[in-house]
Amino acid sequence: MSFITINLTTNDREQITGIEKLIRNLYTPLQSGVSEFRVNLGDFTTIFQNKNTLNTKIKMLEEENRRISLENQVLRENEAELKRLRNIVAFVESSLDTYDLLPARVISRSPNNWYQTLIIDKGSNAGVKMGMTVITPKGLVGSVGSVSDNSAHINLITDREMAVGAILQENRDTNGIIEGRGDRTFLRLMNVPYYSAVKNKNRVITSGLSLTFPKGIFIGTIGEITRERGGLLLSASVKPAVDFDKLEEVLIITDYHPVTESQEETGE
Amino acid sequence: MSRKVRYLMLVILPVLAIFFQSTLFSSYSIKGSIPDMVLVFVAFFALLNAANQSATYGFLCGLLEDLYMGRFIGINALSKALTAYAIGRLQGNVFKENLLVGVIAVLVATVINALLLVGLSLSVSEIYNVDMGLFISIVLQCVYNTIIAVPAYVWYYNSSHHGWLRKTGEN
Fold first, then answer.
1. Among B12, B22, B131, B132, which would you mutate to test the A interface (most chain A Cβ atoms within 10 Å of its Cβ)?
2. Could you read off the pLDDT of B13-55 as tens digits, one per residue?
3. Residue in A closest to B117 by C-alpha
4. Is any Cβ of chain A less than 8 angstroms from the Cβ of B65?
5. Coil, helix or strand for B131?
6. Interhelix angle for B51-69 vs B2-22, to 10°?
7. Which domain holds residue A165?
8. Which residues, 6+ apart, have CB-to-CB distance to A189 below 8 Å?
9. What is the pLDDT of residues A96-152, one digit of tens each?
10. What is the 3-state secondary structure (H, E, C) of A185-240?
11. Is the ipTM of this complex over 0.95?
């Protein structure tokens, strides 16, 4: 019986069954409650922090605010320059794709050691669908695995069943596949040709070759590079851009629109 | 009355285990590994009950996990049923009063369950990346589960003889 159900419930199915939805719907409010309680507990303990510590923090934040304001001015100037350059270049990369984003809160994580998943507090009622890409401002998180009415399971890129097409941001010719290894602090870039100019600290982004993930999303940075047995391929460890242990909010890409040349010329 | 309470407890334990594993325990993972309380309770049940009963209980607990996870339904059910059956077959010749027996049962159950899950995952998944990290993860799970098994077995054993988990007719 187990083999029949395993075969019938592969990752490709669009909908989860009624009983799965029922179990999720029973757990979701409880998990949201625990998540809320932990956030509130954090707020409560802050009140008891030393006044001097808080004053020092305020000064630090004011200083940081001034620095960020200055940086922001420089970045605005750079952005304007980037737009001008993009109008000159005929073939642009699609890293400035625009996304329709839906924010969601992480309410729980995988209950066992075999799957790297998160559960978020948005489901089909909020428009979440299976296969949608999940990101944070820092980089790629994973994709929506299964959806119930008010929650959804996110398969993290660190899951052993995940593979993402990737390229290096510095060297667009270098293609590879990012594989999850069940460790939240470690990914592996596989199938890189031996002649590729891959270097330590290179930035890895999504290639857009897979149907699931849009092009240009930051995945992580290259660590140690090793030559595979046979000598024709390289592989490399990759440090994920996202800290999966501290993930509290995520953004779901519900739709994305690649920037076209005509849009850029008109400045949209 | 006692029988109803026992059955209720046998249901509540895996339900609560999944709830705590997905919320609180995940914050205290060691290199991504968390204790598998569902497996710990299945191993204890198998140590104190017949093999066939244990296999059924393992199957139902695993099925609950599978339905909650929404991936391959039956993978945990099958692995936990077979694990429970194996422990149930081995338990006839051991002194269950000994705490060490409970701890060793959990260790053996963790290894059997891990091997079954890896084997099943490799056979049903299109992609399943195996490397040295998987072996380390299994070792960490063994360590975590056996640590948890020490206080848990004391409670479970006492409850099975004098508490809520006591079978009807036992003192």
1. B22
2. 999 999 988 888 877 777 778 889 999 999 999 999 999 999 9
3. A114
4. yes
5. coil
6. 40
7. 1-48+90-268
8. A166, A176, A177, A178, A179, A198, A204, A222, A235, A236, A237, A238
9. 457 788 888 898 888 888 888 999 999 999 999 999 999 988 889 999 988 989 999
10. CCEEEEEEECCCCCCCCCEEEECCCCCCCCCCCEEEEEEEEEECCCCCEEEEEEEE
11. no
Domain of B133 in residue numbering reads as 2-162
Residue A177, classed as helix, strand or coil, is strand
Bridge pairing between strands A175-180 and A163-168: antiparallel
Interface test with chain B among A6, A20, A151, by most B beta carbons within 10 Å: A6
For residue A85, give both structure tokens: 């350059």
Asked if the structure places residue A74 within a domain, the reply is no
Q: What CATH number should be reported for the domain holding residue B123?
A: 1.10.1760
Q: Do the domain assignments include residue A27?
A: yes
Give the phi and the psi of residue A22 in degrees, each rounded to 5: -60, -45
Residue A229 belongs to a domain with what CATH number?
A: 2.40.10.340
> Domain for residue A30, yes or no?
yes
pLDDT at residue A126, as a whole number: 93
Among the partner residues B23, B74, B125, nearest to A34 by beta-carbon distance: B23
Tally the domains of chain A: 1
Q: In the numeric block, which tokens belong to residue B78?
A: 């099958």
Percentages (nearest 5) of helix, strand, coil residues in chain A? 30, 30, 35
Number of compact structural domains in chain B: 1
Gap between the terminal Cα atoms of chain B = 14
Measured CA to CA, the distance from residue B46 to residue B54 in angstroms comes to 5
